[in-house]
Specification:
binds fe (iii) ion, binds zinc ion, eight-stranded parallel beta barrel, TIM Barrel
Length: about 300
């Protein structure tokens, strides 16, 4: 019995070592985080999809109502993650999209909420929070960026353990962060730069006018403008709209205007190998598409029956 256990331990050690050496693809999707099951429910959902990471909102994305973190559920979730080789370093929280740091109307509330959210993320043991920079709603780009910088500098302190990852946006309406220059201008204003990062979103990049079929060029430009060291997360989505449409409507992998081959080239790009890739593609006929999408990504082969397979 005892030898069995130690043999198992040795095998596990080599398994982890090989995964680290090979730098296995880190892929997952958006999953739910419910009031009762919390992180444990999120991990269970992730395992159903055959993923090795995940992203979630700590409550409804469209509001700021949040429940306290359940320590026992968190501990159980962490145990389940270790058993399944999911590294918590690759797990992501998405901040609710209702907070708009570019607009001063709710400045105090936004800063307070962001601080509380950072604390919740830290309590869960997670290190990355994705945030939409905000929309200037008529104030203009310069003032919008200034407001984002001011709120972030208020929310981030020396004790902050979580990295806030600014998401690249589609440029819908007055959204900021629609190009690398705007992202750079925000980062330039941040005092504690080691607590800030970037999340690229392939649908948003396409819609804002970056041609994903030339992803190496995009990375080059990002490195020149912002710096590769800031890139922490990539959202992998196809787009319902054409290049430069400024729309932001996600499509399932391989059936949008970006296309399967272009997304595969992003996912397997050598320069972003260790960076978590997260799917935020829409449900199909009420069912999550993530198991099937992850399967075809691992096979590097588009599944012509994706819609039917998911609908079943
Ligand atoms: Fe987002
Ligand atoms: Fe996204
Ligand atoms: Zn989006």
């Amino acid at each position: 019995m005892k030898t069995n256990k130690s043999v198992f331990k040795i095998l596990r050690f080599f398994d982890i070592l090989i995964r680290v050496i090979l730098m296995e693809l880190i892929i997952g999707s958006h999953v739910s985080f419910t009031k009762d099951e919390q992180l444990l429910g999120s991990v269970r959902e992730t395992l159903k999809y055959g993923a090795n990471t995940f992203m979630f909102y700590t409550g409804a994305p469209q509001n700021t109502l949040r429940v306290p973190i359940d320590k026992q559920k968190t501990d159980e979730a962490k145990k389940l993650m270790i058993e399944n080789n999911i590294s918590i370093n690759n797990v992501i929280v998405h901040a609710p999209y209702i907070i708009n740091l570019a607009n001063l109307n709710n400045f105090d509330f936004n800063v307070r909420f962001l601080k509380e959210e950072l604390k919740r993320v830290e309590e869960l043991g997670i290190s990355k929070l994705v945030l939409h920079p905000g929309s200037h709603v008529g104030l203009g780009v310069d003032e919008g960026i200034k407001n984002i910088v001011d709120s972030l500098n208020m929310a981030i302190t020396n004790d902050t353990k979580v990295i806030i990852c600014l998401e690249t946006m589609a440029g819908k309406g007055t959204e900021l962060g629609r190009n690398f220059n705007e992202i750079k201008r925000i980062i330039d204003g941040i005092s504690l730069k080691d607590k800030i990062g970037v999340c690229m979103d392939t649908c948003h990049l396409n819609d804002s006018g970056y041609d994903i079929s030339n992803f190496d060029e995009i990375l080059k430009e990002f490195d020149k403008e912002v710096g590769m060291e800031y890139l922490k997360v990539i959202h992998i989505n196809d787009s319902k709209n054409i290049l430069g449409s400024k729309k932001d409507r996600h499509e399932n992998i391989g059936i949008g205007h970006i296309g399967f081959e272009n997304l595969i080239k992003v996912i397997y790009n050598e320069k972003i190998k260790g960076i978590p890739k997260i799917l935020e593609t829409p449900y199909i006929n009420g069912n999550p598409p993530y198991k099937e999408e992850i399967e075809m990504i691992r096979n590097k082969k588009f599944n012509q029956n994706l819609v039917d397979d998911v609908s079943k």
